[in-house]
């Protein structure tokens, strides 16, 4: 076995810069996916069937096709169809945000449906407007129930972020690939990148457990 990690030492700062690039687009994607997913979840439980149909079709499309296909369509097809030269960063945010929204919407919908129906009936009896009822009564309770599932989705998104290396975005994975190509040694930089991904996911997991414990203690 011919391993020599000393050769990647000069590339360590270059690879570490990919952490910021990765977290930047993942954070924006998570926020976009959470906001859009919440809206879609509300559409799914509304009695207005056109909104429910839109949300169901959206979820079916984005859950039924590969994420990398969605990424490639946004990055390669949008310039062809519109003439707009979309950046790798914006393509990554759109693909991951739109894809995450489909999964988040199902998670939130399940959380809303799990809230005791008596809460909704009591709010309606008191004349609480639908918007206030959802924002102040139903959603806060739903989020407590679905926090573990949401954290799993965000962790999955972080791991899948390596896919953006296929469109040239200089994330952690792409920088490790560049280092490997320069050195003609791929194992060491890829192993180093793998350790960093593992550390990021572990931190996210521990943070999720901490928040979950705090929320349970507040009940």
From TrEMBL:
Q: Which PROSITE patterns match?
A: ABC_TM1 (PS50928)
Keywords in UniProt for this one? Amino-acid transport, Cell membrane, Membrane, Transmembrane, Transmembrane helix, Transport
**What is the membrane topology here?**
Multi-pass membrane protein
Q: Which residues cross the membrane?
A: 25-45, 57-78, 84-104, 190-211
Query: Which organism does this record belong to?
Result: Oceanobacillus sojae
Q: Biological process (GO) annotations?
A: amino acid transport
Which InterPro entries does the UniProt entry name for this protein? AA_ABC_transptr_permease_3TM, ArtM/GltK/GlnP/TcyL/YhdX-like, MetI-like, MetI-like_sf
Its Gene Ontology cellular component terms are:
ATP-binding cassette (ABC) transporter complex
Q: Which Pfam families match?
A: BPD_transp_1
Compartment(s) where it occurs, according to its Swiss-Prot or TrEMBL record: Cell membrane
Instruction: Kindly list the GO molecular function terms attached to this UniProt entry.
Output: transmembrane transporter activity
- What NCBIfam families is this protein classified in? HEQRo_perm_3TM
Q: Kindly list any coiled-coil regions of this protein.
A: none
Protein name in UniProt: Arginine ABC transporter permease
What's this protein's family per the entry? Belongs to the binding-protein-dependent transport system permease family. HisMQ subfamily.
ABC transmembrane type-1 domain ranges (all copies): 19-208
Keyword Secreted assigned to the entry: answer is: no
Q: Where does it mainly reside?
A: membrane
């Amino acid at each position: 076995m011919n391993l020599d990690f000393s050769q990647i030492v000069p590339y360590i700062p270059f690879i570490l810069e990919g952490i910021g690039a990765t977290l930047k687009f993942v954070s924006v994607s998570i926020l976009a996916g959470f906001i859009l997913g919440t809206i879609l979840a509300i559409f799914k439980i509304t009695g207005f069937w056109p909104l429910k149909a839109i949300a169901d079709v959206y979820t079916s499309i984005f859950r039924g096709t590969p994420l990398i296909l969605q990424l490639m369509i946004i990055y390669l097809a949008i310039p062809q169809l519109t003439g707009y030269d979309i950046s790798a960063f914006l393509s990554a945010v759109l693909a991951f945000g739109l894809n995450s929204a489909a999964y988040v919407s199902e998670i939130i919908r399940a959380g809303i449906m799990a809230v005791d129906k008596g809460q909704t009936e009591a709010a309606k009896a008191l004349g609480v407007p639908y918007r206030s009822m959802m924002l102040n009564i139903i959603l806060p309770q739903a989020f407590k129930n679905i926090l573990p599932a949401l954290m799993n989705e965000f962790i999955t998104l972080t791991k899948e972020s390596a896919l953006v290396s296929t469109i040239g975005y200089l994330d952690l994975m792409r920088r490790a690939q560049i280092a490997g190509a320069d050195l003609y040694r791929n194992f060491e930089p890829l192993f180093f990148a793998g350790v960093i991904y593992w550390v990021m996911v572990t931190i996210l997991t521990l943070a999720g457990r901490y928040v979950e414990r705090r929320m349970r203690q507040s009940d």
